[in-house]
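Field reference: sequence -> structure
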Amino acid sequence: MESLICVPVLLPLLAAGVKLAIGGRLRRLQSVISLVTLGLSLAVSVVLLVAAESRGPLVTYLGGWPSPIGICLVADRLSTLVLVVSSAVTFCVMAYSVANAYDEQEHDAPMAIFHPAFLVMVAGVADAFLSGDLFNLFVAFELLLSGSYVLLTFGGTEARIRAGATYTLMALASSMLFLVALAVTYGATGTLALAQLAERFPQLPEQVKLLVELTLLLAFAIKAAIFPMSAWLPDSYPTAPTPATAVFAGLLTKVGVYSIIRLEALLFPGGPVSTLLMWLALATMLVGVLGAVAQTDLKRMLSFTLVSHIGYMVFGVGLSTRAGLTGAIFYVVHHITVQTSLFLVTGMVERRFGTTSVTRLGGLMRATPLIAVLFFVPAMNLSGIPPMSGFLGKLLLVQAGLAAGGWPAGTLVAAGLVTSLLTLYAVAKAWSRAFWSAPRVVQAGTVVESEEDTGEDPTVTTTSLPAALTVSVTALVALGLSFTVLAGPLSALAERAAGELMAREPYITAVLGRER
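Structure field:
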């Protein structure tokens, strides 16, 4: 069973190499290889989740060298849970990209590089989730950067190159901070293995521990787009191709959040930085949602809500309680699917009508009722309408905050409720103007201006959508809804994962062995 842990990392890398060798030829084969690879990765991830749930953390040592000499991959409840969800999401996004036929829309874009870059990014995400070593986690982030930069600048347009430059500068700054933290950590402890660090960190002076924790937190906060390190995201993500934007929004920021959850629980439990995390969560929620309310473009509005809802996850981590971690883990799983779904549906709107500006759209509920429903369902889920998983995730966090007590936690609970209401206002306003307002679609092929004069070009060309495109998005929306139906088992699994994290001993024993 332990030998399967490498599959979600190595299989996409192998497939990426094969696809690069194929080049621009046999494009249908390119699509088949991508879908088969991601399907197998999903199947293996499910097997690992079942095994981790029944047997505890599973460990494999790369090259046969045991930790801390070599690098290990660890599959516990938390890592396998997020791995299963990320694998399902990347499979649906790849199906969307295949159906959307970018090779037909962007003739100058190097399609031979899109699929390999996507698979490299997927491998980086899996490596980050499974990594049991800080240096390997750094390598995983660099793998993510290399694949995501190609996807972000795909097509080479001026807007994408500019956004890619901003994204790369922020990523490089984060990587430099990460390297500084690695150097300080290794100099102080003589190891970068997470399990061994968990044993050695309590013996360090408080100033050294605080320096390492703050440096790592700053590096991961940039990657997770936590305020005030979040200004780059709304200007970068909307310019990328829809599949790239969707997977960025669903997964890349969550890798940063996952790293914070893992390290705060394993290396710095209950440290003084917890209070700082709570204030960062407060600022991230409010600044992000206020930015979302002010937007008139669907992609930018969703980008700001993405920033805002990262605050909910940091809220749970900052509480430093089992209930808080349970809520954070549940919310991570929920948000991956919902945010990805919303960006994919927005991509459908853009392909069908040529724009995502709500000032140029209207009456789409009548013109495309299925797209309207596919947007409405995850939008309400994101807003936290009962009894959807978004509501349940927020409820877990509110209960954890009230149980923790104290005015910082109480302030965060109030901010979370306000953020939820403002999120509902932002998405309802966008949906109402784009889908429910006075019809502007008067005949197939054009969208004409209604009585309201926005001062913009009233004509928007429309195109038809492939059936497979709608199927892939519907499947992802259904996956998000399934978390509502399975909320009981999912929250119980999240609670067990949080308990395993806070216990620390199962992880350390699995990696270092009982003889330590």
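Note: The longest strand covers residues 58-61.
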